[in-house]
Amino acid sequence: MPTKKNAKVPKGTRDFDPQEMAIRERAFSIVTSVFKRHGAVAIDTPVFELKDILVDQYGEDSKLIYDIADQGGEILSLRYDLTVPFARYLASHRITNMKRYHISRVYRRDQPSIERGRFREFYQCDLDIAGEYPSMVPDSEILKVLIELLQELSSVSEFHRRRLGNYVVKINNRKILDGVFKVCGVEEKDLRPISSSIDKLDKMDWEEVKREMVNAKGLDEGVADAIGALVRKKGYPKDLLAELRTNSKLVESCGTGFEEMERLFQYLESMNILESFSFDLSLARGLDYYTGVIFEAVLMSDETSVGSIAAGGRYDHLVGKFSRREVPCVGCSLGIERVLTIMREAELEMVAEKGGKIRVPEIDVYVGSPSSGERLLNERMRICTSLWDASIRCELNYSLNPKMNRQLEYVGKQQIPLLVVIGEDELEKAAGERAVLRGQAKNREPYSRNLAEFGFRWLLARPWAGYCALGNGYMYNYLCSSRETFTYSNVS
């Protein structure tokens, strides 16, 4: 007898059950809605790229790229992010202006951590704006999109707000960071290695970072101390910018960095979102392709250990690596898997406190019968067909000999709000019952195959997107108040 194969998933990957998929679909729907609201269009690219496209783009993180085994043809790697493939896409199709969004999987040979939402296969949600525009105008819209994403994902319920609603967006500029390094005495060739060390300040204390720069990267200790005195500065954007401008050497060294940030802060203030930002000189973003504004959204809630959930910045020279023409770009990437980890925790907390469960399948009507026979199965099919044709989500019992108690148990377990029961006698007399179950209460109405008379006029008049469930912050209680009218109440 052949040996059974191990049915486990690879390390750093997952299967998703229906309840998890309901949460994911809800989140992706919110993200897509925000992206489309800003006029972005969707694209997709291959899950793997030529290895030459990806190498030397990610600094020290290049070691995390998944290489595909050489099959005797092109040397390929799985995509590490969605930004480099977008730059390649622009160059390949000779596009110079585009506002695009891309929601898809990426791959990294990272050390997985389920608790922190870190996996080897995961989704990213990116929005990027490519093209020549007045300074900081597209950058400000990208940051507005980021704030909208965080606000809407946290507004699903109070449980989500407690976990996702307390955040800060750190912001910096590569030109300013490089200017700080140069003023302190860092040579041009060492800018990126030192920047990658500073990028670890959110995970390591200053003394550890300093030892790495001095011992591992050969930086003079005095230079390291000078860097430390500056990069640990952070605060309200306009206040810190004014403080930094009092340093004449820094002003000279940072080039247009200060002017860009002043203009950006003005635009963010016009959009009423400046209060969500902290000007933080320790923010470095380790990826080599960033050239200007950089940012990172971090959760501040004590209820989660996820940390950074979104990041991005300006990259003006990446497209030029694949084309003779430079195309300036700026974009943001939402770490949706980390957000989903938190949303899952919020859903479970909500279910535990309010009772019920995350509702799947997302059915509004269940059509059953207490009697046996193919005739009633045909009638259930007719009723469901009428409902499906009217875009009403419904399900029927397949059995020729359905048990009423099992149907009631299924309707209750799946939290299906409306149960339609068709009986043999009622069918003969053209009278049946539609039962709306809540606790022990049951209301009956005469049966008719006509949808309006049957009492579904309210469903036809109230189409909705998403899922009606306790799991997304809403629980709909359908109460039969008359032959033609139903009301529902939001009890989130």
TrEMBL record:
| Any one of the GO BP annotations | mitochondrial translation
Q: Record-annotated residues binding L-histidine?
A: 81-83, 108, 124, 128, 285, 289-290
Q: Does Acyltransferase show up as a keyword for this record?
A: no
A GO MF term? histidine-tRNA ligase activity
User: Which PROSITE patterns does the UniProt entry name for this protein?
Assistant: AA_TRNA_LIGASE_II (PS50862)
The GO cellular component terms are: cytosol; mitochondrion
The answer to whether keyword Nucleotide-binding applies is yes
- UniProt cross-references to CDD domains, sorted A to Z: HisRS-like_core
Report the EC number(s), separated by commas if there are several. Answer: 6.1.1.21
Q: Which UniProt keywords apply?
A: ATP-binding, Nucleotide-binding, Protein biosynthesis
Report the enzyme's class at the first EC level. ligase
Reactions catalysed according to its record: tRNA(His) + L-histidine + ATP = L-histidyl-tRNA(His) + AMP + diphosphate + H(+)
Q: Pfam families under this entry?
A: HGTP_anticodon (PF03129), tRNA-synt_His (PF13393)
Q: Where is the Aminoacyl-transfer RNA synthetases class-II family profile domain?
A: 1-361
Q: Hey, which family's this protein in?
A: Belongs to the class-II aminoacyl-tRNA synthetase family.
List the PANTHER family.
HISTIDINE--TRNA LIGASE (PTHR11476:SF7), HISTIDYL-TRNA SYNTHETASE (PTHR11476)
Q: What name is this protein filed under?
A: histidine--tRNA ligase
Query: From which organism does this entry originate?
Result: Rhodosorus marinus
